[in-house]
Structure formats: structure tokens, C-alpha cells
Amino acid sequence: MRGARRADFVDEGDKTEKAEKARLRIDPVSCEGLGMCAHLAPRLIDLDPWGFPVLPLTDLEGPDRRAAVRAVRACPRRALHVSVE
């Protein structure tokens, strides 16, 4: 699929994916500060005074990882992604 990102295809049941470290990342140039991500992943994402996301510096696990993937998929500007190491 053209334009698809790895985070769009993460299978939560796959043990090899869970063993890998995943972090939520943002493209600050693309982000317009709409705040949709913070509504979908409130435990992970805070908003600064201007409405732009402040992301965690920790690895994503379990429910946090699933919430991050939901936020990535819902971002209208495609500014969020999950990087897997």
C-alpha cells in the first residue's frame, strides 16, 4: 500500500512485535496542533499551551501501544508515527 506506515500494520498478537521497542514520534512540521491524538491517548499525550502534543520518552507497551496506534491512525495530518526498533 502506498503511503502506509509500519505502525498501521502492527499485530498486537505477534510476540516478535511485542519484543521490539516502540516509541511514539511526531513530525513537528506536519502537526497543526488539533489535539485529536491527546483525546485518543490521554495517558500518553499531553498538550502544550498552544495545543501541540508533548510525547512520552518511554517505550510503549500493552494498552499504551494500542492507544498510540489508534492516535497514529486518526491523525488528520499524518504527523504521528510509531517507530519500532
Weakly predicted, low-confidence segments: 14-18
The main sheet comes to: 2 strands, antiparallel
Helix content percent band: 25-40%
Radius of gyration: 12 Å
Taking the alpha carbons of the first and last residues, their distance comes to 22 Å
Q: What count of domains describes the coordinates?
A: 1
**Strands of the biggest beta sheet: in what spatial order?**
1-4
Shape: globular
CATH topology: Alpha-Beta Plaits
Instruction: Tell how many strands the DSSP assignment holds.
Output: 4
Order of helices and strands: HEHEEHE
Strand share of the residues? 15-25%
- State the helix count: 3
Highest-level CATH class? Alpha Beta
Kindly name the structural category: alpha+beta
CATH-defined architecture: 2-Layer Sandwich
What number is the mean pLDDT?
84
Characterise the protein shown here.
- It is a single chain.
- The protein has 85 residues and is of the alpha+beta class.
- It has one domain (6-84): 2-Layer Sandwich (Alpha-Beta Plaits).
- 27% of the residues lie in helices and 16% in strands.
- It has helices spanning 15-19, 36-40, 62-74, and strands spanning 22-26, 46-47, 53-54, 80-84.
- It has a two-stranded antiparallel sheet.
- Strand 2 and strand 3 form a beta hairpin.
- The longest helix is centred in the last third of the chain and has 13 residues, at 62-74.
- Mean pLDDT is 84; it is low at 14-18.
